[in-house]
């Protein structure tokens, strides 16, 4: 229900629906606009989406929602170099990604937007990106297409800085055949995006009580998107991993980057299971997915003939995971849960501190493998160990 207060000396639009009630009071006429049935459905839906997004953040912060299996990075060890012959203070962690230069091969993954707290989370992440010259993603912007109230929580990243690298975000189901290009352009413009991340989240949608289970036409839609928009299209998973078969098809569709976002970190099956009263099916899929290290190795093997960029995410928890990812072929790493937790625990300072620790650990690996820069780290000796 919406209350409109129209001063008596101004013309009121009385052509609105018959569900408009007029109440006369001294000096003003109150119009009580009752939403139409269609509006009611949208409003109820929006409320529910905002609640869902908020509960996702709460569950990540307060519950055990990690995979119970690992990323697989523990299967790899760098070969220690007792004679690194480099000065720690001269180690350069900077990388080029598309047309940008970041201070380190680390970005903050697509996470949130669309409810009150989300604006604060996104602005704090944007501030980290300014301070440390890295990039970030915003969470799915679908909701903001339907209701302007949610636009600000995404747009805020550009209020913080016009310069930082920002990835817009939309779900696979929304770009399936027949998507509206106008809407995709709207979400890109909303954050003046440098790239568009399309997330593949079939596992989450399957377990989510209100999930969208129609993934037909997604690949075709991604192909159309690639030819229709000017900025790079990054396709990412949300923790269940992109393996060789799917990656091959995405490369053929012309995507600019793949973020494998594999298993071993945040489990979206876990999060959605905890939102259900009936948890049996969800529990069975808690650990579903391709571990991040395996996904990375598989997709990297396809790259010799292709120029796509490769991002490692899903369970990246420190600078050692970052270093191993780079040595296994990644151009960049992304983290979601650890940055959200650091921000929640110790505010903006905690967020910057977490990032700085990752960089310190990354530099440690570079020092001990004699890698002066990220190109050298890509060729550092790493071995698969038997556990
Ligand atoms: C609170 C939260 C919300 C997320 N929302 C989105 C989203 O809207 N779009 C998306 O592409 N990924 C989303 N993700 C998934 C992350 O980008 C990432 O792929 C996944 O969490 C695995 O990384 P992690 O183990 O570092 O958390 C979200 C993650 C978290 C923690």
Structural write-up:
- The chain is α/β, with parallel strands linked by helices and 387 residues long.
- It has 2 domains: 2-34, no CATH class; 51-384, Alpha-Beta Barrel (TIM Barrel), CATH 3.20.20.70.
- Helices cover 43% and strands 17% of the residues.
- It contains 15 helices and 15 strands.
- It has helices spanning 37-62, 116-132, 142-146, 152-160, 172-175, 181-190, 202-207, 218-228, 244-252, 268-274, 280-284, 292-301, 319-327, 337-368, 374-378; strands spanning 2-7, 20-25, 28-33, 76-78, 95-97, 100-102, 106-108, 135-137, 165-171, 195-200, 233-237, 257-259, 309-313, 332-335, 382-384.
- The chain has an 8-stranded parallel sheet with strand order 7-14-13-12-11-10-9-8. A 3-stranded antiparallel sheet has the order 1-3-2, with no helix packed on it.
- α2 (116-132) runs parallel beside α4 (152-160) and α13 packs across α14 (337-368).
- The chain is globular.
- It starts with a strand and ends with a strand.
- Mean pLDDT is 90; it is low at 1-25 and 28-43.
- The structure holds flavin mononucleotide.
- Flavin mononucleotide binds at residues 56-57, 60, 109-112, 139-140, 169, 197, 199, 236, 238-239, 261, 265-266, 313-316, 335-337, 340.
């Amino acid at each position: 229900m919406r209350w409109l207060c129209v001063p008596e000396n101004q013309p009121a639009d009385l052509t609105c629906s018959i569900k408009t009630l007029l109440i006369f009071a001294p000096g003003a006429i109150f119009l009580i606009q009752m939403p139409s049935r269609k509006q009611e459905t949208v409003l109820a839906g929006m409320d529910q989406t905002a609640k869902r997004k908020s509960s996702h953040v709460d569950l990540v912060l307060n519950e055990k929602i990690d995979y119970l299996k690992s990323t697989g990075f523990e299967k790899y060890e760098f070969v220690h170099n007792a004679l690194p012959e480099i000065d720690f203070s001269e180690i350069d962690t900077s990388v080029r990604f598309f047309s940008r230069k970041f201070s380190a091969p680390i970005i903050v993954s697509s996470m949130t937007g669309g409810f009150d707290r989300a604006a604060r989370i996104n602005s704090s992440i944007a501030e980290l990106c300014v301070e440390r010259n890295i990039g970030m993603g915003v969470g799915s912007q679908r909701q903001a297409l339907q209701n302007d109230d949610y636009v600000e929580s995404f747009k805020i990243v550009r209020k913080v800085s016009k310069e930082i690298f920002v990835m817009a975000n939309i779900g696979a189901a929304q770009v399936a055949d027949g998507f509206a290009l106008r809407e995709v352009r709207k979400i890109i413009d909303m954050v003046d995006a440098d790239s568009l991340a399309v997330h593949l989240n079939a596992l989450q949608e399957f377990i989510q009580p209100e999930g969208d289970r129609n993934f037909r036409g997604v690949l075709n839609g991604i192909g159309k998107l690639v030819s229709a928009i000017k900025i790079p299209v990054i396709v990412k998973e949300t923790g269940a991993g992109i393996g060789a078969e799917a990656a091959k098809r995405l490369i053929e569709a012309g995507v600019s980057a793949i973020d494998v976002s594999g298993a071993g970190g945040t489990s979206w099956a876990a999060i959605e299971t905890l939102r259900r009263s009936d948890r049996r099916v969800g529990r069975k899929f808690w650990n579903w997915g391709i571990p991040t290290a395996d996904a990375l190795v598989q997709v990297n093997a396809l790259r010799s003939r292709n120029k796509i960029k490769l991002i490692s995410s899903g369970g990246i928890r420190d600078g050692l995971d970052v270093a191993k990812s780079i040595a296994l072929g990644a151009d960049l790493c992304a983290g979601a849960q650890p940055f959200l937790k650091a921000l929640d625990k110790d505010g903006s300072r905690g967020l910057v501190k977490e990032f700085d620790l990752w960089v310190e650990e990354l530099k440690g690996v570079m020092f001990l493998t004699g890698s002066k820069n990220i190109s050298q780290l890509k060729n550092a000796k790493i071995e698969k160990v038997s556990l």
